[in-house]
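Good morning C.,

I know you're traveling, so I'll keep this short. The sequence:
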Amino acid sequence: MITWQRVLEFANQGNPAPDRKVVKSDAEWRELLSPETFHVTRQKGTERPFSSEMCGLFEPGRYACACCGTLLFDAQQKFDSGTGWPSFTQPAETNAIAYHADNSHGMQRVETLCNTCDAHLGHVFPDGPPPTGLRYCINARKQKFDHLPHLDLLHATRRLFRHHWPNCRLTTLEQRLLGYYRVDDLPGSEAPAAWFDYLQRGAEQKLLKVVEHNQSDIISLLVAHTELARIIRNPDHSDLDLYSLARWIGEFDREQAYDLLRSRIDQADEKSKGYLAHLLQKSGDWQGATRLWQQLAQNRCPEALEKLAKYHEHVSKDLDAARYYCRQLPDCQARTHRLRRLQRKSGFRLSPDYPSTIL
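The tokens, ready to paste straight into the viewer:
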């Protein structure tokens, strides 16, 4: 375990030798890196705080140098420092990081660099959590091709099945959507160790299992998206979330989303009917929207009650109806505020027998 004392020893007396060294000219680095990454890593620049999605990413994984690919940190050592930069308590290996005294900008700090290629990473401070007490404050500039759009092949699965499946991992998709069960499969979490064993000792057995695992991933995703396209065209799968599918389609084509929900109104749950009412409202069909809201309001649906209260206050101008639906809402500050506003507008109390005049 690296402590602050060891950090100071490295910075003042010399760093541990790296496993390898990568040396390139500035011109060569410019060819390999994006301008932003070159500025941060080769010119000691600093990202704006909270400018990287890495700040909020705490999923299992490993973080490598954007310049040479050297493993630097493991997600198990990451924590939320609230500073706006990804923060870690320990490097992946003792010799992964180099430490240099940094007296720039009128401050005394310890700069951290990739020990393999001398890329500027950030700084380390003695104000981290126990047991190390260290906070590696690291820039998160990514590699040159990061600007290319990322295609999340499991995005559709999460959108359509997350409320009905225990999780949306690829293996769950394979089993529930494709009826495929892997046999003697190497877990993806073991792939990095298999690669390192091959690179360091030439061990090929597990590396072949990695290739087989990746091959299965690719084939499953290709087949899965063909199956997903079929389900979207004919959404009768028992686990399919109709509301999520309609919302997804509605982001691009509201009319198609409306047709989908109308054709399956008997299967629609509360959220689906609420979204259908929303689509009717957006199209100007207030009569159709209020009819659905009233159906949902009979089951004390808060969203429908609020929609009806707003509709009668601002559209139909029926303040009695607006007050009635508002009073059915759960007790909260918004409800109190709305009732007070309606009271000021009307100047009289709601009759207790009002429901019979509107339902």
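Safe travels,
E.
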